[in-house]
Amino acid sequence: MKKIIIFICLNLLFSFNSYAKKSNDYIIYLHHDANDTDHYSSIGTEIIHRKLNSYLGFAVTTSLGYAEVTDTSNYQHSFISWEGGMKFGYFSDFSLYAEFGVDLLELAFNDRSDDEYDYSHNDNSYNTDFENDNFDHRDTDNNIDGYVGIGSSLMIEQIKVTGFIRFREISGQNWQAKNHTFSGIELAIVF
Question: Kind of pairing, strands 94-103 and 171-172?
Fold first, then answer.
């Protein structure tokens, strides 16, 4: 719980600092990234921070969305995703950046919405030989989902179109995602 409080405090600190020597852009966006049948679709906000008369800076992002992800057993999981992240790069009418982020719901609760089953596989004393032989014990941890990526955008007037590639680490209780590389597009309004 401490991690989420620290992340929210830092997010608020970076988002609300409008000093006279700063130039901030406020953005609302629609976002979609996919790989085969897997996809993330979301709506979010972004605040770009940079010094006055400079195009180098960083952005703080947060989005709420829906995802469908296929695991290594070809079962498709669907869940709500609240992601938070940061971008570092060159922000102008044409932008280039590198980014990283995490699933804030998992950071806060370390659980998945579709993992309602009580898996008894973690206690080997009650498992059958079949379960011990066939259960993948390395997938028992539900790691916090995250991503790293790169992207570029083009802004005309108040409209910004972004293309990006992200490498995502996606897991749930006792499953791992089949696909990790996602590409997508983002349509945004800049204020």
Answer: unpaired
Bridge partner list, 88? 58, 98
**Is residue 82 a contact partner of residue 101, using CB atoms and an 8 Å limit?**
no
Cα-based distances in Å from 172 to 18, 37, 61: 39, 18, 23
Structure confidence by residue, pLDDT tens digits, 47-93: 999 988 899 999 999 999 999 999 999 999 999 999 999 999 999 99
Q: Which residue ranges make up each domain of the chain?
A: 2-190
**Protein fold of 2-190:** Porin (2.40.160)
Tokens representing 4? 């989420």
Q: Which of 67, 87, 63 is nearest to 77 (CA)?
A: 67
Phi, psi of 72 (to 5 degrees): -70, -15
Amino acid identity at 106: E
| CA distance between the termini of the chain | 33
